[in-house]
Protein backbone atom coordinates (compact mmCIF):
# COMPACT_ATOMS: atom_id res chain seq x y z
CA UNK A 1 0.00 0.00 0.00
CA UNK A 2 1.22 3.53 -0.70
CA UNK A 3 0.80 4.52 2.94
CA UNK A 4 3.41 1.94 3.89
CA UNK A 5 3.59 0.91 7.51
CA UNK A 6 1.54 3.89 8.70
CA UNK A 7 -1.97 2.52 8.30
CA UNK A 8 -1.92 0.75 11.68
CA UNK A 9 -0.06 3.47 13.58
CA UNK A 10 -1.92 4.92 16.55
CA UNK A 11 -0.90 7.98 18.55
CA UNK A 12 -2.78 8.18 21.84
CA UNK A 13 -4.28 11.27 23.44
CA UNK A 14 -1.72 10.85 26.24
CA UNK A 15 1.11 11.03 23.71
CA UNK A 16 -0.26 14.32 22.33
CA UNK A 17 -0.60 15.74 25.85
CA UNK A 18 2.97 14.69 26.56
CA UNK A 19 4.21 16.51 23.44
CA UNK A 20 2.70 19.73 24.83
CA UNK A 21 4.07 19.11 28.34
CA UNK A 22 7.58 18.45 26.99
CA UNK A 23 7.43 21.40 24.59
CA UNK A 24 7.88 18.92 21.74
CA UNK A 25 5.65 20.98 19.42
CA UNK A 26 7.66 21.41 16.24
CA UNK A 27 4.32 21.49 14.44
CA UNK A 28 3.46 24.87 16.01
CA UNK A 29 4.26 27.80 13.69
CA UNK A 30 5.03 30.95 15.68
CA UNK A 31 4.67 33.12 12.57
CA UNK A 32 1.65 31.28 11.25
CA UNK A 33 1.63 29.02 8.21
CA UNK A 34 2.76 30.62 4.91
CA UNK A 35 -0.03 28.82 3.02
CA UNK A 36 -2.60 30.50 5.27
CA UNK A 37 -1.62 33.95 3.97
CA UNK A 38 -1.40 32.66 0.41
CA UNK A 39 -4.91 31.14 0.39
CA UNK A 40 -6.69 33.39 2.88
CA UNK A 41 -8.78 34.94 0.09
CA UNK A 42 -10.04 31.49 -0.91
CA UNK A 43 -11.08 30.80 2.68
CA UNK A 44 -12.82 34.13 3.21
CA UNK A 45 -14.15 34.56 -0.35
CA UNK A 46 -14.58 38.31 0.21
CA UNK A 47 -17.02 37.76 3.06
CA UNK A 48 -16.97 39.20 6.56
CA UNK A 49 -18.23 37.84 9.87
CA UNK A 50 -17.58 34.21 9.00
CA UNK A 51 -17.47 31.31 11.47
CA UNK A 52 -14.15 29.51 11.00
CA UNK A 53 -13.31 26.13 12.54
CA UNK A 54 -9.81 25.07 13.60
CA UNK A 55 -9.70 21.30 14.17
CA UNK A 56 -6.89 20.23 16.57
CA UNK A 57 -6.04 23.91 16.87
CA UNK A 58 -3.16 23.85 19.34
CA UNK A 59 -2.29 27.50 19.86
CA UNK A 60 -2.42 28.51 16.19
CA UNK A 61 -1.75 32.22 15.79
CA UNK A 62 -4.10 32.33 12.78
CA UNK A 63 -7.04 32.11 15.21
CA UNK A 64 -6.14 35.54 16.61
CA UNK A 65 -5.60 36.98 13.13
CA UNK A 66 -9.06 35.91 11.94
CA UNK A 67 -10.73 37.13 15.12
CA UNK A 68 -8.99 40.51 14.67
CA UNK A 69 -10.47 40.64 11.15
CA UNK A 70 -13.95 40.33 12.62
CA UNK A 71 -14.51 36.62 12.12
CA UNK A 72 -15.69 34.21 14.76
CA UNK A 73 -13.26 31.37 15.53
CA UNK A 74 -13.97 28.01 17.11
CA UNK A 75 -11.21 25.51 17.80
CA UNK A 76 -10.89 22.14 19.43
CA UNK A 77 -7.77 20.89 21.17
CA UNK A 78 -7.15 18.04 23.59
CA UNK A 79 -4.40 19.92 25.47
CA UNK A 80 -5.64 22.44 28.02
CA UNK A 81 -2.06 23.70 28.26
CA UNK A 82 -2.09 24.61 24.54
CA UNK A 83 -5.41 26.45 24.89
CA UNK A 84 -4.26 28.42 27.92
CA UNK A 85 -0.94 29.26 26.22
CA UNK A 86 -2.87 30.62 23.23
CA UNK A 87 -4.78 33.09 25.40
CA UNK A 88 -1.77 34.10 27.50
CA UNK A 89 0.60 34.53 24.53
CA UNK A 90 -1.90 36.93 22.92
CA UNK A 91 -2.75 38.62 26.24
CA UNK A 92 -6.40 37.74 25.69
CA UNK A 93 -8.66 37.61 28.75
CA UNK A 94 -10.96 34.59 28.72
CA UNK A 95 -13.48 32.69 30.76
CA UNK A 96 -13.68 28.96 31.20
CA UNK A 97 -16.84 26.90 31.52
CA UNK A 98 -17.84 23.24 31.38
CA UNK A 99 -19.50 21.85 28.24
CA UNK A 100 -22.65 20.19 29.61
CA UNK A 101 -23.00 17.77 26.67
CA UNK A 102 -19.43 16.42 27.00
CA UNK A 103 -18.22 14.88 30.23
CA UNK A 104 -14.99 16.54 31.43
CA UNK A 105 -14.85 19.00 28.52
CA UNK A 106 -14.25 22.72 28.97
CA UNK A 107 -14.82 25.67 26.69
CA UNK A 108 -12.46 28.62 26.88
CA UNK A 109 -13.89 31.79 25.41
CA UNK A 110 -12.25 35.16 24.89
CA UNK A 111 -14.11 37.85 26.82
CA UNK A 112 -14.71 39.55 23.45
CA UNK A 113 -16.66 36.40 22.58
CA UNK A 114 -15.20 35.82 19.13
CA UNK A 115 -12.80 32.98 20.01
CA UNK A 116 -14.14 29.77 21.58
CA UNK A 117 -11.77 26.88 22.13
CA UNK A 118 -13.11 23.50 23.23
CA UNK A 119 -10.79 21.35 25.28
CA UNK A 120 -11.85 17.76 24.56
CA UNK A 121 -11.53 15.03 21.97
CA UNK A 122 -12.60 16.25 18.56
CA UNK A 123 -14.79 13.16 18.26
CA UNK A 124 -16.94 14.40 21.16
CA UNK A 125 -18.00 17.45 19.15
CA UNK A 126 -21.05 17.68 16.92
CA UNK A 127 -22.91 20.43 15.08
CA UNK A 128 -25.52 20.42 17.85
CA UNK A 129 -22.76 21.57 20.25
CA UNK A 130 -20.62 23.88 18.08
CA UNK A 131 -22.91 24.74 15.18
CA UNK A 132 -21.85 24.83 11.54
CA UNK A 133 -18.98 26.67 9.85
CA UNK A 134 -18.34 28.82 6.79
CA UNK A 135 -14.71 27.77 6.67
CA UNK A 136 -12.21 25.25 8.03
CA UNK A 137 -8.45 25.75 8.36
CA UNK A 138 -7.09 22.20 8.55
CA UNK A 139 -3.38 22.85 8.79
CA UNK A 140 -2.28 19.88 10.84
CA UNK A 141 -5.40 17.94 11.75
CA UNK A 142 -6.07 15.41 8.98
CA UNK A 143 -2.35 14.59 8.94
CA UNK A 144 -2.37 14.16 12.74
CA UNK A 145 -5.42 11.95 13.24
CA UNK A 146 -4.66 8.26 13.32
CA UNK A 147 -5.02 6.72 9.85
CA UNK A 148 -7.71 4.34 11.19
CA UNK A 149 -9.77 7.39 12.31
CA UNK A 150 -9.62 9.35 9.05
CA UNK A 151 -13.08 8.40 7.81
CA UNK A 152 -14.61 9.27 11.18
CA UNK A 153 -12.74 12.58 11.23
CA UNK A 154 -13.79 13.59 7.70
CA UNK A 155 -17.43 12.60 8.34
CA UNK A 156 -17.41 14.95 11.34
CA UNK A 157 -15.81 17.77 9.31
CA UNK A 158 -18.41 17.42 6.55
CA UNK A 159 -21.15 17.44 9.20
CA UNK A 160 -19.78 20.71 10.63
CA UNK A 161 -19.68 22.54 7.30
CA UNK A 162 -22.30 24.90 5.92
CA UNK A 163 -23.39 24.33 2.32
CA UNK A 164 -21.08 26.88 0.69
CA UNK A 165 -18.14 26.66 3.05
CA UNK A 166 -14.43 26.64 2.17
CA UNK A 167 -12.06 23.97 3.46
CA UNK A 168 -8.35 24.71 3.38
CA UNK A 169 -6.33 21.56 3.89
CA UNK A 170 -2.55 21.30 4.23
CA UNK A 171 -0.93 17.90 3.87
CA UNK A 172 2.66 16.75 3.55
CA UNK A 173 4.09 14.53 0.87
CA UNK A 174 6.90 12.09 1.64
CA UNK A 175 7.78 8.40 1.55
CA UNK A 176 5.67 6.88 4.36
CA UNK A 177 8.08 3.94 4.63
CA UNK A 178 10.81 6.30 5.86
CA UNK A 179 8.82 8.17 8.53
CA UNK A 180 6.26 6.68 10.89
CA UNK A 181 4.30 9.91 11.42
CA UNK A 182 2.69 12.06 12.56
CA UNK A 183 2.36 14.05 10.43
CA UNK A 184 0.96 11.16 8.44
CA UNK A 185 1.12 10.89 4.68
CA UNK A 186 -2.34 11.24 3.14
CA UNK A 187 -2.17 10.66 -0.61
CA UNK A 188 -4.25 12.92 -2.85
CA UNK A 189 -6.33 9.95 -4.03
CA UNK A 190 -7.34 9.28 -0.42
CA UNK A 191 -8.23 12.92 0.16
CA UNK A 192 -10.52 12.75 -2.90
CA UNK A 193 -12.19 9.55 -1.72
CA UNK A 194 -12.59 10.83 1.86
CA UNK A 195 -14.11 14.18 0.98
CA UNK A 196 -15.90 13.06 -2.19
UniProtKB/TrEMBL annotation:
Protein family (similarity comment): Belongs to the class I-like SAM-binding methyltransferase superfamily. TPMT family.
Primary location class: cytoplasm
Record-listed E.C. numbers: 2.1.1.67
Catalytic activity: S-adenosyl-L-methionine + a thiopurine = S-adenosyl-L-homocysteine + a thiopurine S-methylether
GO cellular component entries: cytoplasm
Keyword S-adenosyl-L-methionine: yes
Species in which this protein is naturally found: Climacteris rufus (rufous treecreeper)
Annotated residues for binding of S-adenosyl-L-methionine: 16-27, 56, 77, 121-122, 139
Name the record gives this protein: thiopurine S-methyltransferase
Gene Ontology biological-process entries: methylation
Record localization: Cytoplasm
A GO term, aspect molecular function: thiopurine S-methyltransferase activity
Alphabetized Gene3D superfamilies for the sequence: Vaccinia Virus protein VP39
Key words, A-Z: Cytoplasm, Methyltransferase, S-adenosyl-L-methionine, Transferase
Amino acid sequence: SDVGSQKDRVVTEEEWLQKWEMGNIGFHKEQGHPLFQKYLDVLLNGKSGLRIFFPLCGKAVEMKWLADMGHSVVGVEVSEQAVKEFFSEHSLPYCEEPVPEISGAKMFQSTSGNISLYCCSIYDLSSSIVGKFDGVWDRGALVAVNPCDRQRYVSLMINLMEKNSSYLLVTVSYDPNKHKGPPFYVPESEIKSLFG
